[in-house]
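Listing 4. Sequential folding, example run.
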Amino acid sequence: MNLRRALFAAFVAASVVITACGGAGTGGTSPSGTAKPDVIVGSTNFYEQITLGELYSQILEGNGYKVTRKFNLGAREIVEPALESGQIDIDAEYLATLLAFVDKDGKVAKPTTDPKETQTGLQKALDPKALTVLDFAAATDQNGFVVTKDTATAKNLKKLSDLAPIGNTLVLGGPPECPTRPFCALGLKNTYGITFKDFKPLDTGGPLTITALEGKQIDVGLLFTSDPSIVAKNFVLLDDDKHLQLADNIAPVVRNSLLQKDDGTLKRLLNSISAKLTQGELNDMNKQVAVDKADSKAVAAAWLKKQGLIK
């Protein structure tokens, strides 16, 4: 995950300028009559993160919270300590990746392919840090395997297990280390029984893989599940129906001190985003920002309105 986000750091620095800004005046009042706490929303330096930060910020602002944005802060090595220290109050995270980051030795819990189990383990690891992981979305940002729409239609492919009977007629493309990696070709063989006719070493979910798919040099390619090219190129993301990949579902992580100041409205609002954030919805927003060059703020606002989460 860190590698993929690093690939886009230059893009973010060049094309996305987000300043730390908050609403004017003081925070609003909750239904119980108590003042709503001010909120600082942070993000790493990756366009998907900035859009997610806008979703969180705008739904809170739409419900009377004063929000300060501290986006594009850098890698997780910067953002997670900022969350712990109170420099920010909320950020969007990825269950398995964050658990591996905060519990590097796996002494508390290890990431699994089950999001609920991984969320439970992550919460145990976050308890000493006074942080809470809220509801996770269906949307993920993890290894995925895609085919062109023509290939999917011709061979009736919807899920990875559909590849097992015909894998020996197909060429897989991905990063050079893929054949020996448990979440790439090796995992496809061990979990799904898929053996490919050939493997073509390319890049890690990047332009070489996309070009090879379009040029029919490969039949199946490794991309990240939230890659904007899936929508832009009309690729078909095959369902990981036997759960090969670790659960990197997206979820907000919040400081306990902020939740304790609130009457439960903030938690409900953030969870309402997770409830509606599907893989397709996330990928479409990523495509609008990364490919169409739309502004993350406008994309987030349009999505929240479409979902009926803000007016």
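-- end of first protein; second protein begins --
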Amino acid sequence: MRSTVRYHDVATSDSESDFERGDDIGILHEIGSRIAAADPLHAVLSRVVQFITTVIPCDSCFIYVLDEDALVLRASKTPHPDVVDRLKLRLGQGITGWVAEHRQPVAVGEHAWEDPRFQTFNELPEDRYEAFLSVPVLSRGKLVGVINLQDRSPHQHSKREIQLVSMIGCLVGAEIEMARLEMENTQLSERLEARKVLDRAKGILQRDLGITEEEA
């Protein structure tokens, strides 16, 4: 029987993992030491993925970042060079899009593909994994992205696991947003520089060949 739970519905399991019995201050310190540096977006996201998969063992971890009106896959635990930075979801599309739209975590313990909100992507074999945890990433109440964890075997995510991923999302939300904006500024600067080069080349053609601007 499929089990779909929300953050406020999840009860802490009787058998907790080591991190669940661990020191919250230590967890917070580890998060800060790993993601506080002002690095490019993909470096920030890579550290987030590394940290999450260290404290919560899982078979897959995806991070989607909001870009205008779409969620773009920006980081993954497993290599997906063909889809990272290319796979896009609309708000409301699939479980990930639902979480982004409603800004609420969703945990499915088994048969995640049977959830009515689920959507399959042929590029992602993880879509046949059993368990699915999806948590929004927020910055000052603004949606920044979504973090997804998936498992090949059924897994009931404990309240503490969901709290931890949600806490990480809150802590890194501003950092991800800043890195994303810096990436956009860099791309804009590169386009402007390329435009300057093209304009100079066009001017040389006009001067040396005696042609019009349109012809150049």
